[in-house]
Amino acid sequence: MKLVIATTNPHKLDEIRAILDGSGLELVGLDAWPDLPEPPEDGERFEDNAAQKARFVHEATGLPVLADDSGLEVDALGGAPGVRSRRFTPEATAASNNARLLHRLDGVDDRRARFRCALALVSSSGQALAAGACEGRIALAPSGEGGFGYDPLFLPDEAPGRSMAQLSAQEKNRISHRGRALAHLPGMLRELGLSTPGPER
């Protein structure tokens, strides 16, 4: 079955492909539709944005669509950057976002945080939702060359002493918010009657 992944982020697409390797699904990114406008994501919750993106792309392509919205919640910042994680700064780059996060947490002792991921699967049969989270804290300085986004600053509880960017792809995908959310995909496909490979019915 062909499944559209509603993202233009090559890092996210590669990560999803790695997590779903062996699923039998044909995964297609939005680069296959270069003229498609950027899907809207102006909701106040990750779930709202994921569903909004999935519905928009499904209406444009007619194919089953999986969309995720994910981000970082920092307790000391009242849950920020949250749904605005990608656009935490006007430049919207990993370097500028990470620098602002460290500046906002300068001198702050409570550095608890979590990555959250919401998934929405939309087809002609309806919509299914799932979520995943990874608990940890924000480091005092970035470390590691892997991952993307806030990974160099995020110290997951399940990998003591290492940032998400210091983990192998396999280690990260096992404990990450996105990996945990995608573990629900088989059930989401069954919920919408899409569990059997082949054209959407």
Description:
The protein is α/β, with parallel strands linked by helices. The chain has one domain: Maf protein. A six-stranded mixed beta sheet has the order 2-1-3-4-5-6. Strand 4 and strand 5 form a beta hairpin. The N and C termini lie close together (10 Å). The C terminus is likely disordered.
What's the short story on this structure?
The protein is an alpha/beta fold. It contains six helices and six strands.
Q: State which percent range the strand residues make up.
A: 15-25%
What's the CATH class label?
A: Alpha Beta
What fraction, in percent, of the residue positions are helical? 25-40%
Low-confidence residue ranges: 196-201
The CATH architecture designation is Alpha-Beta Complex
Strand order of the largest sheet: 2-1-3-4-5-6
- Quantity of strands, as a count: 6
Number of domains: 1
Give short descriptive properties of this protein.
disordered C terminus, six-stranded mixed β-sheet, Maf protein, 6 helices
Write the layout of secondary structure elements.
Layout: E1 2-5, H1 10-19, E2 26-29, H2 46-61, E3 65-74, H3 94-104, E4 112-123, E5 126-138, E6 154-156, H4 169-175, H5 177-182, H6 185-191
Parallel strand pairs: 1-2, 1-3
Antiparallel strand pairs: 3-4, 4-5, 5-6
